Amino acid sequence: MMRFLLSFALAKGVRLLLLLAAVSVISFGLMELSPIDPIQAYIGADMMRVGEAQREAIAAYWGLDRPPLERFGRWLGSLLQGDLGVSMIYRMPVAEVLAEKFVASMWLMGAAWLLSGLIGFGAGVLAAMKQGSWIDKAIQWYCYTLASTPPFWLAILLLLAFSVWLGWFPVGLGVPAGLLREQVSVWDRLHHMALPALTLSLVGISAIALHTRQKLIEVLESDYVLYARAQGERGWLLVRRHGLRNIALPAISLQFASFSELFGGAVLAEQVFAYPGLGHATVEAGLRGDVPLLLGIVLFSAVFVFCGNALADLLYRLVDPRTRGEKAW
């Protein structure tokens, strides 16, 4: 087992390094090809009052007057020493910006991940137990409809319904406006996080529900379940004894593999709700040409998604010994 874990970690580590190198080069290249002028975006509304000499000074301060290869080489050298650079927007180290934004996004994505997993798993089990009934058809219709619904569109609908018309939730932001950090209560944070988390949960239900439904139907049609039926087992007791154990782990693995969809949905949902997380920071960095911050977020999100997929892969290999002989590449 230890040998397997070591070889798995080594293979995944090499693959992660190659992935980070690729996304760094591609992201930097795309930012260079972007029509956004980072100096103009940095100056903002004061553009008419800033002269050419001041623009050159700003470019020299942030190193934007250097050739692209030299700037990428400097960034890479700093990265190898553990320094992600300084954000032009927030004027603070990128590592501190990532830590601050990730805390907000972590609670949001964690709540959405947990809710979508539990609700999706429960809906999938219910649909399989009621196969062919109106409940099964309603759950499938709901899942297929949400699977084709853009997260930002659903976020706008929920914002209009629950914040603008009903007034149950705040329109946006992560905490009430005008309050100091020490004045913000846990309830305030949960109240502001509820609607973005609900948006991500509703979008994430579809995959886990449909997967669980199909797997449980296969289990219920297997020979050993037919034998259990012949012994008089029925309904929930039959599913609990012979179904849940077989479908739970694949469902958990699928949920871990959904980190990429979760992060992508969070970017759009945070932008709609003006929630101050990593997604909101990503859009700000892209629109304002903050290359160090954008590269830091890209690397962080790549590690985040890669770890989710690696955990799902590891779970499969631990549960099914037949897959341990396959290469982890």
From TrEMBL:
One of its GO terms (biological process) is transmembrane transport. Keywords: Cell membrane, Membrane, Transmembrane, Transmembrane helix, Transport. The chain crosses the membrane at residues 106-129, 141-170, 190-210, 247-273, 293-316. This is ABC transporter permease. It is found in: Cell membrane. GO terms for cellular component: plasma membrane. It comes from Xylanibacillus composti. It comes from the Bacteria. It is a multi-pass membrane protein. InterPro entries: MetI-like, MetI-like_sf. Belongs to the binding-protein-dependent transport system permease family. It holds the Pfam family BPD_transp_1. Residues 102-316 form the ABC transmembrane type-1 domain.
